[in-house]
Every structure is written in C-alpha cells, then in structure tokens.
Amino acid sequence: MRKLPLAVALATLLLGSAVQANDHHDDKKDKTPQDKADATLVTPKTAESEGSVSVEGKRIDYKAVAGTLVLNGSGDKESEPQVSMFYTAYFKKAADAGKRPITFIYNGGPGSATVWLHMGAFGPKRVVTSDDSHTPAAPYGLVNNDYSLLDASDLVFIDAPGAGFSRLIANDEDKGKRDEQMKDRRKSIYGIDGDGHAFAHFITQFLSHYGRWNSPKYLFGESYGTTRSAVVANILESEDSVDLNGVVLLSQILSFDTSIDGPQFNPGVDTPYIVALPTFAATAFYHHRLPQQPAQLEPFLREVEQYATGDYAQALMAGSRLDAARKQAVAEKLHTYTGLPVDYLLRANLRVTGGMFEHELQNADGLTTGRLDSRFSGPSLDPMAKDSEYDPQSSAISSAYVAAFNDYVRKQLKFGQDMNYRLYADIDHWDFAHKAPGVEGEALQQSTNVMPDLATAMKTNPNLKVFLNGGYYDLATPYFAADYEMHHMPIPDSLQGNISYAWYPSGHMVYANTESLKMLHDNVARFIQSTDNIRH
Predict the structure, then answer these.
(1) For 179-197, how does the pLDDT look when each residue is reduced to its tens digit (9 = 90+)?
(2) Which domains can be identified in the chain, with CATH numbers?
(3) Backbone φ, ψ for residue 517 (5° rounding)
C-alpha cells in the first residue's frame, strides 16, 4: 500500500552493486560494491533526450533531462555530500526561460517516488489503467498524454531521498564511520523538517543550475506531498527569499488530527469522524448502498456536509452525555447517509474509522472497498475482520505504473540502465515531530500540523496563491477534511481569497479517472496562467 499519510511504506532492495564504478585499489583492500556505489553518487549525472507531446490538440516539442543533483549538508557539513536526488525535467523548446513558468512536482509517502504524478498525471506519456477495476497484467499501454501540463509550464518531477534513483550518500573510506554517516543521514533527512529542507535545497540548486531564478515558480504536491509543500513553501519564502507564484495541493493533509485512519487511538478528538462523513456518503452513493439513492452526488454531499458540522458534530461533542433516544436518531440518520446498519453504528458509538468503513460497506458481498479510491472494490481477505486489510485501488494499478516507468526511463529517457528504481525509500522510522514557525526552543508539536507553515508563507508573501484539489472518493485524505483545514488556516480574512478549490468525481489519485484528469489539467493550467505575472 502506498502514500499512507500516517505510516511509511517499507523497503525495497539495497543499492548494492547497482551503480557501476571502475575498480581501483588502495594500499589495504579492494573497495566493496557499496564503496563504489557511494563514490559514483557524489558526481551529478544527466541524460538528455527530445520528444513531443500533443496536449489537447496542440503540439509541444520538449527537451527532457533525467539526472541527479548532489546536495551537501549545512553548517560544519557544508562540504559533505549527503544525498543524490533524482529528477526528470521537461523543458519546452524555443521558450524564454525567464518568462516560462516552472513547476516542481512530487508525490508523498512519505518516502515515495514520483512515478504516480509522472506517469499518471502530467508527464508527456501516460500509462493506461482501468477506471475503477483491476488493470490486467502486462503489456501495459503507454500513450501520448493529452493532458500533460507542459502546455502551461516546464515540469520537474522529483524523487524523495532514498526513493526512485535518489540515494543517501555515505562515502567515508572507513566502514565504521561510513555506517555512522548513513545513520546520521537517515536521522537528519527522514522526517518532516529534514525532508522539507532537502527539497527546498534541491529547488534552489536546480534554479541555479538551469538559470531559472527569474521564472514564475510553482510547487505541486500530492498526499504527504501537500504536507511537504507547506513546509517547503515556508522555507523558500522565509529562509531563501524565494517568492513562489503558486502552490497546488492535491489530496491534502496538513493537520494529522483530521485523518480518519486512526482516530480511535486519540480518544476525545472527533474531528476525523465529522470531516470523513461526506466521503463515506459519496462512496455509498457510488456503490448504490444507500437506503434511498439521491439523484445527484453534489447536492447530496452539500446536505451531508451541513449535517456533519451540525447535528452530528454536536452529538459527538456530547460524549457520554448523549441520551439514548438522540443516539438512536443519529445512528438512523448516519444509516441514510452511509448505508451502514443502524446496529453497527450504535455498536461503533457513532464513530466509524476509515478501515472499518472500507471493510463493512460491501462486506455482505464479500468485498472490501478501496481506500485511496473508494470507487474500487476487491475480494475481502478476511470477512470477519474489523478493518480492511489491503487497498483494492493500490493493488489494481501499482504494477502498471511501476512497469511503465521502468521501461520508459531506460528506453526513452536513457537513464538508470543498471540501477534499481525504488518505489519507496527504505525507511524504518519517519520523524513526524515538527517545529512550527515562531516556536522558540525545542518545543515540538504532539500531532503533526503544518497549517502554520503554509500560513506563514502566505503572510510573508501576500501575493502567494494556493489551489486545493481533491477527489470525492478519497478515503485516505477526505476532501472535506482538506476543506476544513483551509478554512481554519491562521491567516487574515483578506488572504482567504488567495485560496481556490476544485473537487472531482475521483479518488486520491484524481487523475486515475480520465475525465477528472482533463478537469485537473485545465484547472491547474488556468491557475498557472492567472498567477504567472507575465500576462498581468
């Protein structure tokens, strides 16, 4: 399962001897394969190619660069290479680099490669997957992406440290010291703040390397990538004096107190149940599990949103003071909105987690409902379990993305022939502790919340525009939770006008639905064109 907002995807294989190096000797011993690999990582690499893409009938010729940038540490480690970050950049030919927008794009995880947005959303090639069912095995279709974002901006897809072809670097000749270096790298980079600084460092180095400091600049993050974007935007604005034109957020999670993945472990915090209810309703609507099927989705969701923040929220806030008659009435109303049995809702104390809903909604038919995209269904692994045990959507499309990119990057981008492309970084611990802007000393948040970071970026750059996008069928990061976060941002009312919204009849990966991909492309292209300060 990928892109979990509260858990880290686990390991693929170690780099080992995947990167070739020339054999050489010192006075004592041969270099090991890991020595050779680390030695090659400290040198940036690039492979250039050319191509064209037709975007909604318009041909765009581009140069592609697949490569790495090496990031050094800071302070007393400023001359010490710490991470080699892999990227794929697409530059429109014959464009004025000083006026051409550039968008930095990344997935989440944390620790995920950016294969999903690259091959599913905005790259010049797109992998073909089934809309709401399991995609058959290889060969997979790779087609011209009619909705590549290259018509509006140059694009830079970035793999997180340790994922894709990105690697942490430890290159001391002494093995013991090298092991300590790697331990230090993991500790300093695999966390909210370390990851944010690594991406900000990559972006400023990229701007220098390719002469793009005066270009209109955008961030585009998905899932945990939205958490990252809030942190990176604040670092760029507050520490690097880089004013961004815009930040595009897809399937947002800024405050982890809104997540429906695990509120049962945080008793007394009822917000996740409230903000997830509209997505439960949308999912039950899609699968025709409602006692009375509404004619249209969106008017139905507006009704559910009002109930969620009204009577339902008040009932949950009452806690043990809620009388039996009112509890029964709420359970019956939830039944009309979710399709779940009244007795089940009562036994759940009116509080159903994402995993419980995914397991229960279609359990009578032996089906588990998708998490990342609840339009998907798959056979239940254990019909007697309390929670879902896998995500049918992730299982349905991941193989297609992995196979398509591994083929594309080597045959067309001419990079990574003898390297292992890691879907996820080998992370055994992700540090969710975060020091919010303005906090003095060592005080850290108890629950991750980067709303203050995005708010600070918006206040220090009052021209910064933010565009929030989400899918109605996303149970990983429910759309109404993102809406709730944005309307509780610690910013002046005057800056609320800098935030715009778009919702789609799709899931976490909005672009997995072709109709939604077209809408996403058109919306993001308009957002860039309205904020690039070139035509205005």
Answers:
(1) 888 888 999 999 999 999 9
(2) 33-257+397-531 (3.40.50.1820), 261-390 (no CATH)
(3) -60, -45
